[in-house]
Amino acid sequence: MNFNRILKPYILLSAACIPVLSGCGGSGNSSQDSARPRVAVSVEPQKYILDKIAGDRFEVVTLLENGANPETYDPPVSRRVAVDRSKAFFTTGLLPFEKKITESLGNDVPVFDSCEGIELVYGTHSHGDDHHSHSKEEADPHVWTSVANAAIIARNMEKSLETISPADSLVFRANLEQFLTRLDSIDNAVRSRMPKAGTAFAVWHPSLSYFARDYGLKQISVGSESKEMSARKLSETVETARADSVKVFFFQKEYDSRQAETLNNMIGSRLVTINPLSYDWEGQIDIICGELEK
């Protein structure tokens, strides 16, 4: 499914030169880009959303490096310095490395929780040897994989941007409304093409919990935190997936396991590589939807 074939054409105000709101010059040269104030985010999907709201008013830098696991990531000095030199740091409030960064920041860099108000999912994650023993106290950090959550994140970011750049409030508000309209259209398109409620899919790491909740789907996490499962757990996992008639198995790029292909063959599913940490947030939602509707 390609959302652009379904939805009406969408042009962000921040990407256009609208004199009434922004008075932009549109030159886009490198000296102007380097002169923009900087703000920092934790992961690329946040950057995607913040870019939509901030437009050309800020340079947005991402703390998490490409290919890194956000739950075990330890930012290098260069990334920490980038945050130190930013006007603000937008966190998810759920990733371990964020706490390390915020504790080291001075009072000159305000920290905003971009996920405030999201109803969190618990019990999907574990960092022990048994991937079935999930802690009920640990919130699932992959909040950005939900279209509804993306709208909450966008609203939070817009409010925060107004506090650090009040003069651009009209631009931020206009960009927010355009983006929320786009999200409504995406949500409607997804709902119209999702399989029936209760349909199950497999995923190596439980990164689609919020997506599954939004659309009444069942996510089955088949991966192991320790990378290699015992023969018993492998058999149990396959049995569960088969019992739920799993047809698609999503595997995330940031993980490396030789067992994924074996599991997929034993389940009899279709192995699809996704990247929930990609800047191309909409493209990833599109891929997931397209595979689920097959």
Q: Gist?
A:
The protein is α/β, with parallel strands linked by helices. It is 41% helix and 11% strand.
Based on secondary structure, the structural category is alpha/beta
Strand order of the largest sheet: 2-1-3-4
Number of strands: 8
What would you report as the Rg, rounded to the nearest angstrom?
Answer: 20 Å
Number of helices: 11
Largest sheet: 4 strands, parallel
Could you explain the architecture of this structure?
This protein is an alpha/beta fold. The chain has eleven helices and eight strands. It has helices spanning 3-6, 30-35, 44-54, 77-84, 96-104, 147-164, 169-193, 209-215, 231-243, 259-267, 281-292, and strands at residues 38-41, 59-62, 89-91, 111-113, 200-203, 218-221, 248-252, 270-274. The chain has a four-stranded parallel sheet with strand order 2-1-3-4, with helices on both faces. Helix 3 (44-54) crosses helix 6 (147-164) and helix 6 packs antiparallel against helix 7 (169-193). The longest helix has 25 residues, at 169-193.
